[in-house]
Amino acid sequence: MDLAERYPSLRFAWPRPGVLEISFQGEKLNAMDPPLHRALSQVWRDLEALPHLRAVLLRGEGGVFSAGGSFALIEEMRASRKALMRVLEEARDLVLGPLNFPRPVVAAVEKVAVGAGLALALSADIAVVGKKARLLDGHLRLGVAAGDHAVLLWPLLVGLAKAKYHLFLHEPLTGEEAERLGLVALAVEDEAVYGRALEVAEHLAKGPREALSHTKRALNHWLRTFLPHFELSLALEFLGFSGEELEEGLRALKEKREPQFP
């Protein structure tokens, strides 16, 4: 299988034996346009067919992880119900793909991880984050419910009180703060993110393949227990893409101001 041909939005490399590095480049700050969003949600099924793959390393190109879904992706959803339903399925697979993938997944999170970008980062088994990186869910600022990963992952990782605080107030976190709260596994100096993430991926690739896979599967049953909450939050989020609050949220983002919701 030619992954590069099948997924032209992604770059594939083998920096260490058994470690497949997947890098991606989107719009400004690696915001996910429709082809990139689709690729990052679908690639996991094809990766299972690679016999020598022992660990995956995710990174954004240009030293930036991802600012989330692009305006082009949102406009496509608003213009077509068919596109809306397709992107809903992609948003589900963007989270469940890494969670269900049988090999360990490491994310090298540099500069920013917002919205769908943060969903991808936190769905990895181990997120290595720059101490000054900016992490933000951002859905409520846009005027839609906090779906994607937030209702599934945040309460388990940081507790319900902190989850409500940061999701309701769209309060950003630095990588250092995220590590302290338990949202991410490891925060390092910004210039050391990729190197440390590669070290972690290489260490995992040398580990016992079957035992790691079984341990990941068992641990992630904690998350599977809450999949009904995830499905509800995802449905409510996408319901909001036809709402009036989204209109103001989009205008505010484009005009770089705080939204004034009716």
UniProtKB/TrEMBL annotation:
<dbReference type="InterPro" id="IPR029045">
    <property type="entry name" value="ClpP/crotonase-like_dom_sf"/>
</dbReference>
<comment type="similarity">
    <text>Belongs to the enoyl-CoA hydratase/isomerase family.</text>
</comment>
<dbReference type="InterPro" id="IPR001753">
    <property type="entry name" value="Enoyl-CoA_hydra/iso"/>
</dbReference>
<dbReference type="Pfam" id="PF00378">
    <property type="entry name" value="ECH_1"/>
</dbReference>
<dbReference type="InterPro" id="IPR014748">
    <property type="entry name" value="Enoyl-CoA_hydra_C"/>
</dbReference>
<protein>
    <submittedName>
        <fullName>Enoyl-CoA hydratase</fullName>
    </submittedName>
</protein>
